Amino acid sequence: MIGAELLSPETLTVGWLIYAPVLLWAIWRAPWVELFTDSRRQHLLFGTVFALFMLWLVRRDFDTGVSYHFIGMTAVTLLLDWPLAIVGGLIAQLGLVLLGRQDLVAVGVNGALLILLPVLVTECIAILVERAQPRNPFVYIFCSGFFAAALSALLCLLLALGLLWYDEIFVMPYWLEDFIGYLWLLIFPEAFINGMIVSALVVFCPEWLETFNRTRYLSAPWKDDDPKS
């Protein structure tokens, strides 16, 4: 998460120009009728927003204005699907703003980096996995869970560093050349947390996952039958 003091007014404006239209589109595409008539979905949405809010509160704030915390949006996207995931992420962001843990003017940039980007990566990978129609649920867990979370964290870190470098307000640390070594320490925990959550949901509550094809993964055999000789 990036503080507003580290970003130029132009970057903050561009962040809102990217975040706001996608947010409005997500609100338009969200299944509000099903949400209002299904108490299970309501509980999932409220519980997910609360878990996301608490996850973002557990973070490391640096004196430079940059904060590090786990993202968690991969599991949220697989659980709620992308429209409600974006809406839920916004609600969690507003909670941070009310507590003074995030700058209101930087909600656009941070929302684009920490919400839209992971949701986009997760949704694209989930679509590719669904098109491949695998029968083994571990393909879904690894590709849509572990790999999507790792790729989201990597892209988020690189883009955040790119924004800070472009605006030239944040003083880059002298150890930036060794940053590649620290990437694994940031990417692997993100992949592990999201992957474990998705694994637990597949095993115990597969009906909660909006992007999980229970008919194919749980009814069909994991391997094709060997042809009879």
From TrEMBL:
Transmembrane segments: 12-30, 42-58, 70-92, 104-129, 138-166, 186-209
Gene Ontology CC annotations of this record: plasma membrane
Subcellular location: Cell membrane
Main subcellular localisation: membrane
The keyword Cell membrane is annotated on this UniProt entry: yes
Keywords annotated in UniProt: Cell membrane, Membrane, Transmembrane, Transmembrane helix, Transport
Highest rank taxon of the organism: Bacteria
Topology with respect to the bilayer: Multi-pass membrane protein
InterPro entries reported in the protein's UniProt record: CbiM/NikMN
A GO BP annotation: transition metal ion transport
Protein name, UniProt field: Energy-coupling factor ABC transporter permease
Source lineage: Bacteria, Pseudomonadati, Pseudomonadota, Gammaproteobacteria, Pseudomonadales
